[in-house]
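Re-run with default settings, no changes from the original entry. Doing this only to confirm the output is reproducible before filing.
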Amino acid sequence: MTEKDYTYKKHSISEFLAKTPLFTPFKAVENYIRQCYAYTSPCEIAGETFSFHCEKENEIRTFELHLTKASLNYFGSMPGDQIPRELFASDGRLDFEHHFIGECKSCKEYHVDFLLHVYTDKPITPDQSNTIKFDPENNMEHPADEYDPDRANLYIEKTVSS
């Protein structure tokens, strides 16, 4: 019998942004743990880069995701140890859609818009405090979430792109 792998894995969303069709879920995080900066708020997605065709330069260039100014002001002013409650569904799962602007880093003029739907398959806590447990077997500290075999996965899908 094979033992299940409960290791936390955060996957790059660069390829997803560049090539995945609309409404195709992408598993961005497997076995979510707190304190992993795992795309759980718009601020954790902003700054991601991807390759895309710049129509202004007619070349594949590197683009970077940005928040709108209003979103940056709103989410940037929130405490870093909490995921904002408005990003959750009533059942405790993370579930939000947000608008991002992909800007060509070369010409700084060509933009592509994304509306991303971010959600988990199980409830997660809004509290992102670094909770540690001591493992006496190997005399080491580990994030407490690592001891939970029933952790959530986080998915992202593009719902609109231009």
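Residues 9-161 form one domain. The longest helix spans residues 69-76.
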